[in-house]
Write a structure and sequence with these properties.
The complex is a heterodimer of chains A (about 100) and B (about 350).
Chain A lengths: L1 E7 L7 H15 E5 L2 E5 L2 H14 L6 E8 L21 E2 L1
Antiparallel strand pairs in A: 1-3, 1-4, 2-3
Chain B lengths: L5 E5 L5 E5 L2 E6 L2 E7 L3 E7 L3 E2 L1 H9 L3 E5 L5 E5 L7 H12 L1 H30 L8 H15 L5 H22 L20 H24 L17 H8 L1 H15 L8 E3 L5 E3 L1 H16 L1 E3 L6 E3 L3 H14 L12
Parallel strand pairs in B: 1-5, 2-6, 5-7
Antiparallel strand pairs in B: 2-3, 3-4, 7-8, 9-10, 11-12
Helix pairs in contact in B: 3-4, 3-5, 3-8, 4-5, 6-7, 6-8, 6-10, 8-9
Chain lengths: ~100, ~350
Amino acid sequence: MMVLVSYDVATSDPGGAKRLRRVAKICTNHGQRVQYSVFECIVDPGQWVAMRQQLIDVIDESQDSLRFYFLGTGWRRKVEHIGAREAIDQEGPLIL
Amino acid sequence: MRKMLNTLYVTTQGAYLNKEGETVAVNIERETRLRLPIHTLSSIVCFGQVTCSPFLLGHCAENDVSVSFMTAHGRFLARVQGPVAGNVLLRRAQYRQADDPVASARLARLFVLGKVVNCRTVMSRALRDHGEKINAPEMPKKVALFAKVARNLLQEESLDNIRGIEGRAANDYFGHFNDLIVSQKDDFVFAGRNRRPPLDRVNCLLSFLYSLLYHDARSALETVGLDPAVGFLHRDRPGRLSLALDLMEEFRPVLADRLALSLINLGQMRKKGFRTLESGAVVMEDDSRKVLLTEYQKRKQVEIEHPFLKEKIPLGMLMFAQAQLLSRYLRGDLDEYPPFIWR
């Protein structure tokens, strides 16, 4: 399934930059960065539970926020891209 | 059923792959062009001058991602394998049956049966779809003959005879292959199978597709814990993965021949996409290779209902399904191995 993860991390706070880096790292490990703080992750339910928990453990819930959008397996119909930096289709042919 | 994961093909010369966290990063000219989480991949295939960092290779081995290296023209060179995994008991059952000529023949004839029936389907589909363009009056007779060969096979008990039938059927089939090419007939002429090196464009396409199949068959067998080197139809030979060759037989017509034909017939392959070397060998240009790989990957995503499992699965998972059925048969959970019959 496809999950869209977006986050806001308060970098003005001491330790904020560190949390931001960690959140970004967890996201790149599971998905593709499509915009600065937006990731598209193709995960199975097991991987999702693990990833979600890792993110929750890192953020400071009093200042940062996470939003998850569940797009399921038919996500292709629900996503449209306009403009630069077109994302690659992680389930399509991967030839470089 | 396992989810079908993606395969990463790297054909850009000079590319470098390394591990970045849990992702595979592809660097081209010192720039990271792609980062993929490793859990979305089942294998990586590198063509020509493509290098991988040792840490990436180790990480791939840990995550059951197979990494193969091919020459730029698709000849298999090497693959990287992690620690030995899989089921010893299953492998022992495989070795015992491979040593027994009667048991080997029983399996071998089913592999050949699958191939013969699927070759027949390729021909009869071509006749049905554009029969008026095929100038071969004896073809319908050949199609009928293949059905008879398939029936006879089931009675055959000697391995040598089975191999003989297979050889004759392959000859017959390739004897008609040129008739199945309905457009660009002057640019793509098939006068019989040749390889190492392929001497014409059609053979070049076929050889390349077969080496992709070989790679996929090997991974499928290893995933279920079978030894790809010990075959039933093909005998053991150092450096050859005989069981992978056995398993491929059913799929050659379905995944490779049919694809090669449609690439030519639909004009996706052109004469100028190929080059003849001084040695007479015909090789593909980079662009043709990309088209071929893209179409191969697309074809693997097409879903069909598996005739035995009665489950909807993508074509790319077929080999895995067949490898699993084979292991069930070898273990004694199935009375007979059901070859894949394409409808």
